Amino acid sequence: MAKSFLAFCSILFIFMHMILSSVVGPPRWWPPHGKFKVKCPYKKVSLKWYKGTADPCPGLYQPICGTNFVTYDNPCILCIESLKSEGKIKFYRDGKC
């Protein structure tokens, strides 16, 4: 009885993991390579009302290219711009555009 319950729980855990990963999708860390990475929550947070510029990572220079072909000084600034554009601007590639 205990072994079948354990097997049932294991199968249930694997099944739930498969469902949740297909709904949520794989994690998107920017940039995929580099010393500093950011997971930008553009689907959950909207900063379109914010018109200013912000650098939540001052002193960090790690050039990163956005899908709008603008080079940002670091992934944090790209994340802020992504939140302001409601996800229209995303990570394109490491380095300058």
TrEMBL record:
Pfam families: Kazal_1 (PF00050). Residues 34-97 form the Kazal-like domain. It comes from Prolemur simus. Its main location: secreted. Coiled coil: none annotated. It is found in: Secreted. The gene is SPINK14. Residues 1-21 form the signal peptide. It comes from the Eukaryota. GO terms for cellular component: extracellular region. This is Serine peptidase inhibitor Kazal type 14 (putative).
